[in-house]
Target: Thioredoxin reductase (NADPH)
Amino acid sequence: MSEEDVRDLIVVGGASAAQSAAIYAVRSGIDVTVIADEYGGQINNTDVVENYLGFEHISGPELADKFLEHMREYDVEEEKGFKVTDIRKNDNIFEVEREDGEVFHSYSVIIATGGSRRKLGVSGEEEFANKGVGYCAVCDGPLYKGETVAVIGGGYAGTEAADYLSDIAEKVYVLSRSGVLKGEQITIDKVEEDENVEVLREATAEEFYGDNLLEGLKYDHKGEMKDLEVTGAFIEIGTKPNSQISDLVETTESERIKVDEEMKTGTEGLYAAGDVNNVGVQQLAVSSGQGCQAGLNAAEYVKQEKSGLN
Model:
């Protein structure tokens, strides 16, 4: 393999952390290749963004488009359509393998793969997936206009979903296992004030049922099993980090990649930014900032590696 076959930096991921990293690395004077199965990430599942600096009110997909447009203002090589399945290191060169078997080589890698929706793992969940059970209220909520639906989860994702669905469905039930709603206080206040939203506290979904389509769910309320008739149920219990991508990284009990304050993993030249790592809260502004930091640090590392070859 010749030096010409080795890229400077490969960024794995297609959302805010990855695109921010790519922009800052290119501006630092190195070549960047972004490998992603798709662009946008979790923000594509967000109805409205009101807490990202500079945008008082913008839809998630629209903001994701703006991030991509911004990245494309720079000379970034794009390899889109395939997931990365493995990242290895041979001497000082990284090998990044895609699911189609193609292998790319680089001096440095940034993992910015974000997370994917968590599942409940209860009876009927798989059977009624896409038949009433869903994981994205913004994506599928309009299908249930004027109907009765449930949101499973009272955290950040759950309260956002309930607020969105309150303008579409006739009735929205929110099942909160802890009994407490979490998230931005402004969203919690709106959910608790909406007349067509009812919060079922200390309620745990145990089973989904129906004939061909979802007809309802059973939930445990303080040890008593109860029934709730709904045509749609949205499981909004957060995300699981997409961290099972390399043996070169160490993860926490929650499967997040361990990094230091500079976004470095335990492997020289390998960084992780955004929701996939164990630093900071999972917010868009944090992911973008971490992408900036990882991009700058990776660029400095690449320059040092290449100067040692001359």
